[in-house]
Automatic annotation (TrEMBL):
Name the UniProt record assigns to this protein: Glucose-1-phosphate thymidylyltransferase
Record GO terms (molecular function): acyltransferase activity; nucleotidyltransferase activity
SUPFAM superfamilies the UniProt entry points to: Trimeric LpxA-like enzymes
Keyword Transferase appears in the UniProt entry: yes
UniProt cross-references to NCBIfam families, sorted A to Z: alt_bact_glmU
InterPro entries: Bifunctiontional_GlmU_bac-type, GlmU-like, Trimer_LpxA-like_sf
UniProt superkingdom: Bacteria
Organism of provenance: Rhodohalobacter mucosus
Pfam families, per the entry: NTP_transf_4 (PF13562)
Keywords: Acyltransferase, Transferase
Taxonomic placement: Bacteria, Pseudomonadati, Balneolota, Balneolia, Balneolales
């Protein structure tokens, strides 16, 4: 059967703001890959994996097109990680069959009439006449909250390597004067450079080094970790377990159990732990994230829409930072900080734990970031990586700016 794919968002979307203010749910990175890439590998398909977009994301991300003249379209909820059990169930769906979990749609194979209706009006499961399958919690790995991205990251690095079929290439002879432990668990892509004195320690899990990545001298990486395509690990950096450095990032200092999406920098000393950073973030020299309260109690994180604190029940949560946000040198970020899109944090004290998008923050003094100045800074940063700020991208940012309550 000739099938196209459509990845959709559900009512849990707000739980992943501010990262999902500037991207669809399927573009979140956990492990080596984004959620869309995971499903592409799991279903062994070379088709486009995208989905219906919120209005302000249109033009920035692709929308589904029925250019392959498919017999049907497989709608998939990307919050559900495609473990083999789930991927097999999804792959075996017949036309007009669907899978649910506690009343939430996980996947459905629909005809073109239904697909077009859902694209126009949204998913209408109540009127759907297909055959239903129910999955149990024990069969699933589900993302429900934003901090689960870094909590799942180590096991997802293992999972992504397994579904991608990548071959270990950790031979010390190719990279002289380096130290590799368990080289059969070190996966190095074409064009990667590893300088003398670097240590890749895969005792506790695999290490993935992407195409044209650069691991500088005397840096230490402990697995499971992933350094993705064209990223740079600077001299003397310490990368601890369960960390992903996304494509075209530059990192130094100490990083533990954290995720950097693409084009973000933490190029100098300082600590980032149990944290997630979006695209185009920049952490100034000696920026430090607190990830554990002094009294060892559970961390509270603000609800993105209401600003009310929620007790997460988790002991370790650092910083969640949206795209294009930055810190000045010697910045300190409190435990459970939630920072929106395009913020500028500079202070010799702790900024607020909840920072709305487009905020200019000095200590507890917080004012709106002038939109024109913010766009100018975005454009300059992107030009440094030969990326053009498009009108659609600026329109997306303008929509986020106008929807922000200061």
């Amino acid at each position: 059967m000739n099938i196209d794919y459509c990845l959709f968002e559900d009512e849990f979307l707000d739980n992943f703001h501010p990262l999902t203010l500037t991207r669809p749910m399927y573009d979140l990175r956990v492990g080596v890959f984004t959620l869309a890439e995971k499903w592409s590998y799991a279903l062994k398909s070379d088709r486009d994996f995208c989905g219906p977009l919120r209005e302000h994301l249109k033009g920035v991300f692709p929308e589904p097109e029925l250019k392959n003249k498919p017999d049907g379209v497989l709608w998939i909820n990307p919050r559900y990680v495609p473990l083999p059990v789930l991927a097999d169930r999804v792959r075996d769906l017949d036309m007009m069959e669907y899978i649910t979990h506690e009343g939430i749609l996980v996947a459905a194979l629909v005809d073109l009439k239904t697909h077009r209706s859902w694209m126009k009006k949204g998913i209408q499961l109540n009127s759907f006449k297909g055959a239903q399958q129910e999955l149990h919690e024990t069969e699933l790995v589900i993302l429900k909250n934003i901090w689960e991205l870094f909590q799942m990251n180590g096991e997802q690095i293992l999972f992504d390597i397994s579904i991608s079929g990548k071959i270990a290439y950790g031979e010390e002879d190719i990279f002289p004067h380096t130290v590799f432990t368990n080289p059969d668990r070190i996966y190095i892509e074409e064009g990667a450079k590893i300088e003398p004195g670097a240590m890749l320690l895969a005792d506790n899990g695999p290490i993935y080094i992407g195409k044209n990545a650069h691991i500088m001298a005397n840096s230490i990486i402990r697995g499971p970790s992933a350094i993705c395509e064209k990223s740079v690990v600077k001299m003397g950096a310490r990368i601890y377990e369960d960390t992903t450095i996304g494509p075209v990032c530059k990192v130094g200092g100490e990083i533990s159990n954290s995720i950097f999406h693409s084009y973000s920098n933490k190029a100098h000393d300082g600590y980032a732990g149990n944290s997630v950073f979006g695209q185009w973030c920049n952490l100034g020299a000696d920026t430090n994230t607190s990830n554990l309260k002094n009294n060892y109690s559970s961390v509270k994180v603000s609800d993105w829409k209401t600003g009310r604190d929620t007790d997460t029940g988790q002991q370790f949560i650092g910083t969640i930072m949206g795209d294009h946000s930055k810190t000045g040198i010697n910045s300190m970020l409190n435990t459970g900080t939630l920072c929106g899109v395009c913020c500028n944090l500079f202070s010799d004290g702790y900024p607020p734990k909840h920072v709305p998008s487009f905020s200019w923050v000095s200590g507890h003094d917080m004012v709106p970031y002038h939109f024109e100045k913010a766009v100018e800074a975005m454009s300059r940063m992107m030009e440094r990586r030969s990326i053009t700020l498009t009108p659609a991208y600026e329109k997306m940012m303008k929509a986020i700016f106008e929807s922000t309550s200061f």
